[in-house]
Write a structure and sequence with these properties.
By secondary structure, the chain is of the alpha/beta class. The protein has a single domain (about 1-125), classed as Alpha-Beta Horseshoe (Leucine-rich repeat, LRR (right-handed beta-alpha superhelix)). It contains 4 helices and 5 strands; from the N terminus they run ααβαβββαβ. The chain has a 5-stranded parallel sheet, with helices on one face. The radius of gyration is 14 Å and the shape is globular. The two termini are about 25 Å apart. The relative contact order is 0.15. It comes from Aegilops tauschii subsp. strangulata (Goatgrass).
Length: about 130
Amino acid sequence: SISALLGSPVCSHLAATLHTLQFRYDRWVETFTEEQEQALQLLTSLQDLQFSACSSLQSLPQQLRGLSSLRTLVIFGCEKIRSLPPKESLNASLSTIIVANCSPELTENAKNLKKSDTYSAKIIVCP
């Protein structure tokens, strides 16, 4: 679960070696706590971050800038997330954002950002 993994002691042990992190089928977490967001920042080697079928999650972590190696962000089947994090909260290393089977608001938000070239990352939107 998101809560169990994002405890600072766990993240500090994984910081240098974890390249892919997938949160799947977590029905309980609605938002990230400040402590969880800070713990996530410790994962500087993280390249791929995925959220799949987190049915109660209402928003993504707001600060992903500390993830200096992050290349891919995938959001799949997260019906309550309404928007992507602001551009200034993302690291320049992020090259791909994939949004699939999500809320109409998030899908529309991603499509609009794709058109506007607001993000430097390639945005892939699947209905």
